[in-house]
Amino acid sequence: MYANTSRDLPGAVLKAGRFAFPLDRPLIMGVLNVTPDSFSDGGRFLDHDAALAQARRLIDEGADILDVGGESTRPGAPEVSAADELRRILPVVGALAGTFPVSVDTSKPDVMREVLSLGVAMINDVMALRAPGSVEVVAATDAAVCLMHMQGTPRTMQQNPVYDDVVAEVGDFLEGRARAAQAAGIRQERIVIDPGFGFGKTTAHNLSLLRQLGALRARGWPVLAGLSRKSILGKIAGRHLGDRLHASVAASLLAVERGAAIVRVHDVGPTRDALQVLRSVLDDRFSIE
Ligand code: HH2
Questions:
Q1: Which helix (H) or strand (E) holds 212?
Q2: d(Cα 10, Cα 178) in Å, to the nearest integer?
Q3: Do the Cβ atoms of 141 and 117 come closer than 8 Å?
Q4: Given 41, 106, 128, 288, which residue has the most CB atoms within 10 angstroms?
Q5: Class of the 13-282 domain?
Q6: Pocket of ligand 1 (CB under 6 A)
Q7: Per-residue model confidence as pLDDT tens digits over 122-175
Q8: pLDDT (tens digit, 9 = 90+) per residue, 88-119?
């Protein structure tokens, strides 16, 4: 049985501003980091023309959503002010948010407020709306939100992550955050949850979460999986950062096969092709006519 159909997912449609995504096929979120220091594409798209060209390329390759970030969350990354974050992302967000589903990767309510006023479809928050005021900012709009789990902060998260039962603890946290968001007025159909691969997790923790992604999905909200180019894949495949495409595509396939509704990836074209093959096999309604 195809793991991710409207038949067995309670929220059959993800509502994100004026966009609605039926969840009967996996969605691809293309990553665009407008930062000097993101772990895989830092520095490449700080120039606005380069950022816009990359955004258009990801859209052409088949991205359903474009996730724009102005602050790196890699382990040990320095903090960035809201003003600097906005300075980095506003040109590309402003150029695209009116016509394409744009997500902004931020934890700052001031950044959220500003980009939501430009019509972005989704806020992707690695802090799961824990910054004071952020739930209210999102609740005042009809944008979607991705709530991600992280143990610790980007500065400290990889120092010594410890869990008794990582799948249960991450699931309990995300369910708590999703319920808090709903209590504040964000409807269930606008919420996505994400285990936060690599955020305060050892390789063993990450693998347990990927193996049991179905348990997370069973909590009742669509699941986003972000494994693209991450160090866990480098360790497994023995590959440096620039050479993790194949491992990343494999990880996205496995995440979707285990119930992910959205995969967040840097390499949209190859991921799209692989997911088409997966769909053609797993979804008996798949048709190429
Ligand atoms: N991973 C990164 C950043 N944001 N958001 C969600 N929801 N899930 C993730 O797994 C996730 C995320 C890290 O990747 P990247 O954006 O490429 O790097 P950086 O944080 O260094 O900019």
A1: none
A2: 14
A3: no
A4: 106
A5: alpha beta
A6: 31, 33, 35, 38-40, 69, 72-74, 105, 124, 126, 146, 148, 194, 196-197, 224, 226, 264
A7: 999 999 999 999 999 999 999 999 999 999 887 777 788 999 999 999 999 999
A8: 999 999 999 999 999 999 999 999 999 999 99
Instruction: Report helix, strand or coil for 2.
Output: coil
Question: Which tokens sit at 248?
Answer: 């990343």
- Which is it for the CA torsion 10, 180, 175, 102, positive or negative? positive
Domain spans, the chain: 13-282
| Residue 123 to residue 190: CA distance in whole angstroms | 10
Pick the catalytic residue from 88, 230, 244, 258.
230
**Catalytic annotation on 239?**
no
Element (H, E) at 262: strand 262-265
Residue type for position 281: V
Question: What is the CB neighbour count within 10 angstroms for residue 204?
Answer: 12
